[in-house]
Structures are given as structure tokens and as C-alpha cells.
Specification:
There is one protein chain. The chain is α+β, with helices and mostly antiparallel strands and 112 residues long. The chain contains 2 helices and 7 strands. The strands form 3 sheets. Strands 1-3-2 form a 3-stranded antiparallel β-sheet. A two-stranded parallel sheet has the order 4-5. Helix 2 links the parallel strand 4 and strand 5. The relative contact order is 0.15.
Length: 112
């Protein structure tokens, strides 16, 4: 997975068959996006993930010590940083699996 940061860019994606369009950032079959553009694309998903994690933390009966990121988004340093911002004041650690695509399981009950 390619790492992206809002302050870095531009990013280019090949989109063969598209006509050049300066206003849309398309040139020679490549779409050019700034870090802010990419951030805006992912922000609704990131916000929903943050809300879901926050809800899970609040729903636990025991104090939460850590959030373990696994799966495809488990590789995202951007999501990790946003999660850390969200839970920093609560003393919760955010950790990433070295193999981000691994599943987390306990007692034959697989959770993603």
C-alpha cells in the first residue's frame, strides 16, 4: 500500500483512455492529485473509522490500554496518526502489526 500524507504530493495515477483536461488534472492518461485531494477522498472513511473505534472504546467495561491495527488499513500511517491524536489524552497506545494484512484472533473467534 502506498503511503500518503496530506502535506506531500502530488500523486499520479494512470487512467488510460481519458482525454487530457487541465481543469481536472489529467495529462497523458495520468490523473494528478495533491495530498489535500487524496486526503479529501479518504476523509469520510477515516472519520467513520475514528467514530467506530471511539464507540468501541466507550462500550468496553475494562479500561482500554491499546488499539491494534491490522488488515489493509492497518498499514496506513495516516490512520495510525489520526487514531493516536484521538486517544492520546486517554493514555491509549496505538500499535500496528508488522504484517498489516494479518488477522487478529483469540480463542477461535476471528475479528478484523
Amino acid at each position: 500500500m502506498k503511503r500518503f500524507e496530506v502535506t506531500v504530493g502530488p500523486y499520479q495515477s494512470e487512467l488510460p483512455g481519458l482525454r487530457d483536461s487541465a481543469t481536472r488534472g489529467i495529462r497523458r492518461g495520468r490523473l494528478r492529485l495533491t495530498g489535500s485531494d487524496v486526503g479529501a477522498i479518504f476523509e469520510p472513511v477515516i472519520s467513520e473509522i475514528l467514530e467506530l473505534v471511539d464507540g468501541q472504546i466507550k462500550a468496553t467495561e475494562e479500561p482500554v490500554k491499546a488499539v491494534l491495527m491490522v488488515g489493509g488499513f492497518g498499514q496506513s500511517t495516516y490512520l495510525r496518526d489520526r487514531l493516536r491524536q484521538m486517544v492520546a489524552s486517554r493514555g491509549i497506545e496505538v500499535m500496528q502489526s508488522p504484517n498489516g494484512y494479518a488477522k487478529c484472533s483469540h480463542d477461535d473467534d476471528t475479528r478484523y
